[in-house]
Amino acid sequence: MEARRLAILCSHLNPPGPNPTRDPTLRVSDCSSGSSGDGKVESSTLQNDCVFCKIIRGESPCLKLYEDDMCLCILDTNPLSHGHSLIIPKLHYPTLEETPPSVVAAMCSKVPLISNAIVKATGSDSFNLLVNNGAAAGQVIFHVSTY
Fold first, then answer.
1. pTM exceeds 0.85 for this model
2. What's the number of CA atoms in the CB half-sphere (13 Å) around residue 112?
3. Quick one: which of 10, 57, 78, 136 could link to 121 by a disulfide (CB 3.0–4.6 Å)?
4. Quick one: what percent of the chain has pLDDT higher than 70?
């Protein structure tokens, strides 16, 4: 499964040739948890006007790198660097202080998998891990995330 995720990520970050054709597995996704309904997030736990909540509800498109029952990792639509991605919890927490430790742990536990895949896919030898927490720290979308 990890090898497949890396292959998908590599095909998106390092497309072959000057006019790449996208891997069909990388089409814009609705970012919902699947057709079984087990992992669906209750809409009452999401905010109507939050862009990340809209992605989680399937109302906005995204390119999904990873998803489980607690969090979602997507490529940034306005990347600051090659491989710029975000790990967001599936429930709405405006800041890190308001996020339960178990959710923070779930998000952080994905960092090695995602960062290693991005480093390999981009040919980089390093990466940044950031959390903008609060307006003074540059947070613009008040749904906690790491990127």
1. no
2. 3
3. 10
4. 69
Residue listed under structure tokens 């862009």: 51
Residues 5-28 as b or e (16 or more Cβ within 10 Å = b): bbebbbbbbeeeeeeeeeeeebee
Neighbours of 99 (CB within 10 A): 20
- Looking only at the bridges linking them, the beta strands covering 71-75 and 64-67 are antiparallel
Torsion (CA) 116, 133, 74, 38 in degrees, nearest 10:
110
CB proximity list for 3: less than 8 A, separation 6 or greater: none
Is domain 2-16+64-137 given the CATH code 3.60.15.10 in the classification? Answer: no
Degrees (nearest 5) of the Cα angle 69, 70, 71?
A: 105
